[in-house]
Amino acid sequence: MSTAQSTKLLSPNREHTRTGMSKEALKQAYIDNLFYIQGRFREVATSHDLYMAAAYTVRDRLLARWVKSAQAFKVNRARTVCYLSAEFLLGPHLANNLVNLGITKISQESAAELELDFAMILEEEEEPGLGNGGLGRLAACFMDSLATQCIPAIGYGIRYEFGIFDQTIENGWQVERSDTWLRNGNPWEIPRPKICFPIGFGGYTEQYRHADGSLRHRWLPSLEINGVAYDTPILGYGVGNVNLLRLWKAEAPQSFDFQAFNVGDYYGAVHAKIEAETISKVLYPNDEPEVGKELRLKQQFFFVSCSLQDMIRLHLNTVGSLDTFANKFVAQLNDTHPALAVAELMRLFIDEHGMAWEQAWTITRNTFCYTNHTLLPEALETWSVALFERLLPRHLEIIYLINQDFLNQVREKFPDDETRVIRMSLIAEGEQRRVRMANLAVVGSQAVNGVAALHSELVKTTLFNDFYDLWPEKFHNVTNGVSPRRFMVVSNPRLADLISHTCGHNDWIRDLSLLRHLEHHADDVELQQRWREVKIAAKQDFANWLQQQTGVVLDPQAMFDVQAKRLHEYKRQHLNILHIIRLYQRIQQNPNQEIVSRAFIFGGKAAPGYYLAKLIIKLINAVAEVVNHDPLVNGRIRVAFMPDFNVKNGQRLYPAADLSEQISLAGKEASGTGNMKFSLNGALTIGTLDGANVEIREEVGAENFFLFGMTAAEVTAKQREGYRPWELYHADPELKADIDLINSGHFSRGDMVLFRPLTDHLINHDPFMVLADYRAYLECQAQVSTAWSDAANWDRMSILNVARMGKFSSDRAIVEYAKNIWNVPPVTVER
Ligand code: Z57
């Protein structure tokens, strides 16, 4: 851009450069921001400067709507949803906000006129990876849909300085690198240093006589730190509503300095400061809890207490009495990570605000709802009573009191059933007594829900069966959903355009059930053709990116067979590998056979301490190394592990998939949401009857879904009768040959022990029944290959599949929560 042009843009005539949506206003604002915020002119700006100028230009437009929303909610005294979550896996903001503002196209044009590389600017954003996987991403999709459905909401969580680690692959192994997402600043957040609450830890409790004459309890913590608010605006799609994501950062209070001054221990005081700030330093990188980690309990209490104190402050600001707290707020507990909120709200009401126990308990129960996300026993959080007592002595007292009342209620309804009482207690007795966070969450909530129909049934009949006997009306299902904005419009603009063109409108973006219209065109040869071109183009984009990342070359004509999700044994990435090894051996035995070309693509992070999951990554890469270079294979099958599967890279991948692998052992995957993202982008699913797969199959039709494997009931039956995987290993020669080939060192340069921990575990234990489903999986994959060979029919199935996936929008899920669980009406903010 010439200097003359920038001078013109800097002229005083700039209408609404902070809020204007015209091309001129956007261009002017961009140049202003580059100049006044980054301190740069075009010729010397780095790509990061160019990104920041774009981000601030968009942010200004969000803030205008945000202030208006805040005013509207205040005037209306709007009932507000508080979504309490230890994780928000947001993904990049810029492209999503452009879509929600409706200015993607005009921004592209503005960029072109300013001679800026639009795609490069979007690439520049470092995503906030403040979550591990499905649970954190669900919270982010829900924030998008809450705003889009005009429901006043605050997301409360932790502003981790380091989010989920960056994954690289070295010599086939996962290597973790710390995620320094804040390194270059974060234009999307606004620090609120004045919104700051003290958070106590440790110390003791005592009774005292309050000024009003009553006998009260108080907690005298031995340590107090501060939680400071950082706010991010969350705009809905095509609406004026902006909600608030408020994340807490831990800071040492000023008093730490005075202590140093008094005792002359300057170094000690600085150390104490650092210690205090570790609370919000880093996200725990497991998709299930790490037992007994004190810092994790501190994180949970930290963000819960900050959030509840904030809610009380907001309520007292407008109403002046806490009696109506549960009318103003409903708080959703995203898993048990924030379940301490039940005890903390009781403490705040009783100890800090002098409320009577009975009233406090009624309001508390009316405030909370709890979502369960797993049935895996190892993923159910408990904390040792000893740790609890040391860190949160007053909360332990309160939990004991809640438990007393609760267990009396159980005894009343089920007399002479002490084993039931023991099962339901908030405290697990035994060598080491432990607090059961899930039981606390159920007892302290008015509603409990699972995340898919099958999962919610199992919650009622297995995990919380005793609670279901006591309170059947408390239990609900809300099947998960994903945001059509991020996972269709932002990530797959070609497909979005084709859908809009075919439907004659783009209303489907806010009402995904309208995708049904595509059904009428599934047999239209011209649409099939264009559908295919869109898919091939996405595959080519992905292949280019992958080649640049890994050197692996993929042929966009091959079937892209994809499994991308956290590495976990229950998700059975190793079942997928056994299929690849089987194809490989068939080629070795009969090199000239006709086979369908497939590119197997894996992505996903393993928890750093999960040895077997890391070994599975190594195995994938080891098989890739051999298969990709085998002259007999000759490129007909390719295996690739895409490094660092996160939201940003997921957005590249979903549009490129032909086949989506959803092959968890039935009864183990609560819902899954990747299954929805792939399917909405036209991939067909090969899957078990697990989680939301069941409902996806129901919606798209059994004839458009590749089903295999045991049902959850069959899994339970088999476990009951005694599962003996070694018998399967010896009975099936192909299965044996596949496992033996791994053990022969064929994929590990002769190393015959490298993968033994994995293969021995499969043969002798196989807790997720890989061997039991192996044969059915191979047969189902053969059907997939047959179906692929009829390209037109595959396209037709793909179109039907998308047409019938409307249910899996997070908008639908949020509307169900709002109506059936939260009882919260929308408040529309003018645009
Ligand atoms: C997590 O990502 C999920 C469950 C958990 O208990 C934890 Br901890 C983390 C996942 C489930 O595994 C998925 O099946 C589900 O789709 C997702 O949560 C969202 O509900």
Automatic annotation (TrEMBL):
Instruction: List keywords of the entry alphabetically.
Output: Carbohydrate metabolism, Glycogen metabolism, Glycosyltransferase, Pyridoxal phosphate, Transferase
What this protein needs as a cofactor is: pyridoxal 5'-phosphate
Q: Which domain of life is it from?
A: Bacteria
GO terms (molecular function) for this protein are: glycogen phosphorylase activity; pyridoxal phosphate binding
Enzyme Commission (EC) number = 2.4.1.1
Composition bias of kind Polar residues appears in 1-10
Q: Which reaction does it catalyse?
A: [(1->4)-alpha-D-glucosyl](n) + phosphate = [(1->4)-alpha-D-glucosyl](n-1) + alpha-D-glucose 1-phosphate
InterPro entries reported for this sequence = Glycg_phsphrylas (IPR011833), Glyco_trans_35 (IPR000811), Pyridoxal_P_attach_site (IPR035090)
Q: Where is this region: Disordered?
A: 1-21
Q: Which Pfam families match?
A: Phosphorylase
Query: Can you cite a GO biological process for this protein?
Result: glycogen catabolic process
Asked whether the keyword Transferase is assigned, the reply is: yes
| One cellular component (GO) term of this entry | cytoplasm
**PROSITE patterns associated with the record:** PHOSPHORYLASE (PS00102)
Q: Which residues carry this modification: N6-(pyridoxal phosphate)lysine?
A: 677
To which protein family does this belong?
Belongs to the glycogen phosphorylase family.
What role does this protein play? Phosphorylase is an important allosteric enzyme in carbohydrate metabolism. Enzymes from different sources differ in their regulatory mechanisms and in their natural substrates. However, all known phosphorylases share catalytic and structural properties.
Q: Which PANTHER family match?
A: GLYCOGEN PHOSPHORYLASE (PTHR11468), GLYCOGEN PHOSPHORYLASE, LIVER FORM (PTHR11468:SF3)
Q: Which NCBIfam families match?
A: P_ylase (TIGR02093)
Q: What is this protein called?
A: Alpha-1,4 glucan phosphorylase
Annotated source species: Chromatium okenii
